Structure formats: C-alpha cells, structure tokens
C-alpha cells in the first residue's frame, strides 16, 4: 500500500503547538528535556 497517497484531512491531527509551548514554558523545562505524546484512536478517522 502506498501510504503517501492515503494521507488526507482525515489523517491530520489538530494543531497542538500551543500545548507544546505551554510545556516548554514551564519552570524546570530545559533544552533537551524529553516530551512524550500519546495519541489514541481507532484508526478510522472518526
């Protein structure tokens, strides 16, 4: 299967840049600190 051709609006995630910015702005966060993001879903785009 050609996964590149299967990508579309249903495969896009919402913009989470504001959430990431809140995390890196916290006291104690330093350059090189890790962030783990867990995305759950059914894989159906719903």
Low-confidence stretches: none
- Secondary-structure element sequence? HH
Number of strands: 0
- Report the biggest beta sheet as strand number plus sense, adding barrel if it closes: none
Number of DSSP helical runs: 2
Radius of gyration: 15 Å
Quaternary structure state of the chains depicted = single chain
* Percent of sequence in beta strands: under 5%
Approximate helicity band: 25-40%
Distance between the termini: 21 Å
Shape: elongated
| Class by alpha and beta content | mainly alpha
Mean pLDDT score = 81
Your description of this structure?
The protein has 46 residues and is mainly α. Helix content is 26%, strand content 0%. It is built from two helices and no strands. The radius of gyration is 15 Å and the shape is elongated. The mean pLDDT is 81.
Topology diagram in text:
Blueprint: H1 3-6, H2 17-24
In brief, what are we looking at here?
This protein is mainly alpha-helical and 46 residues long.
What features would you highlight for this structure?
mainly alpha
